[in-house]
Amino acid sequence: MIKGSCLCGKTQVNADFMKNEIIVCHCSMCLKQAAGPIFYSYGLSLDDYRFTETSEVAIFASSENAERGFCQSCGTFLFMRYKKDTSTYFNIELFDEIDKSLAKEIHLKDKKGYYSLTT
User: Which one of 16, 43, 49, 105 is at 20 to 30 Å from 113 when CA atoms are compared?
Assistant: First the structure.
């Protein structure tokens, strides 16, 4: 089991597994939310993870197709989830215990010229 938590520690998630590969999203919504790209895990199904009972998750419907989760206490961005198939893509930095490697970048057409990633 892989354990993750927000900045304040009140919201905790347990995932049955987690790939160490990162998806970097440059879409306009992620850029607006984080003032830069967001680094995601690969998608997990609802059966692959659980938030603890004391977690304080708030959900924001960010579009017709997706919603985003935040810790109500500290505001840490937790995940983006598609409404149709419920695939959940977590903020990879919630999970301290896994080694991470960049796998792919998406929505490069929206990427701003004032930042770059080096691999």
Answer: 43
